[in-house]
Amino acid sequence: MSEAPVAVFDSGVGGLSVLAEIQQLLPNESLLYLGDCGYIPYGEKTPEFIRQRCGLMARFFREQGAKALVLACNTATVAGVAELRGDFPDWPIVGMEPAVKPAAAATRSGVVGVLATTGTLQSAKFAALLDRFAGDVKVVTQPCPGLVERIENGDLHSAALCQLLQGYVEPLLAAGCDTIILGCTHYPFLKPVLSRMLPGHISLVDTGAAVARQLQRLLDEGGLRAHGPARETRFWTSGNVPHFAKVLPILWQESGSVQSFDL
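Request: output the structure for the sequence above.
Response:
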């Protein structure tokens, strides 16, 4: 069982940022990745629809023999992780949540900015995180329509992307933020352009590394850590397979075998 793969899914390609953190921390683990690109963005879907998609993908990964599941998507975690844990109580399942706690601890100005999808910012879970961890810290939220779609197309540097991103960052800087949460798994791919755009004292916080550490803890608790070597990472998408294969080397830094997911 320890040599069985770890499964990761997202509404699109954003979860590849989490997959990279898992591979870096746990290099002996064999990995499976599914991008539900045929139904992106999840933020515009109902919670019930997202729960149905989560259930479909979870059952698919069970059939693939996965020993653990990572929901590398904030919106899917909000809508579906509780139900999945109830349906699969014997399965280590790791979800995402915006990094409010570490950002609140890191800020020196007392003002934290959040770049996220509209769906994440409107969720009750995000409001609960603010209540629990923000304390005396002022949190300034910024929805970012259009960013996910550009990253899905492999656009990480264009003038149009930079203009869009600048418009989202400026209100956070004007509010005095010195720490910015990247509240969507797509957004870590924008770290290089953000680093050039932002003043040097601004810290960027995301949860990919924390998710990898939580996965490591759960695997260790269950005696499920692989001892290698890892098999080739396998990819599926519910969207356009040639497009996913084209974007993959841009975001994953290497090409891979991509299959169609259609249930």
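The chain has two domains: 6-96+209-260, 100-206.
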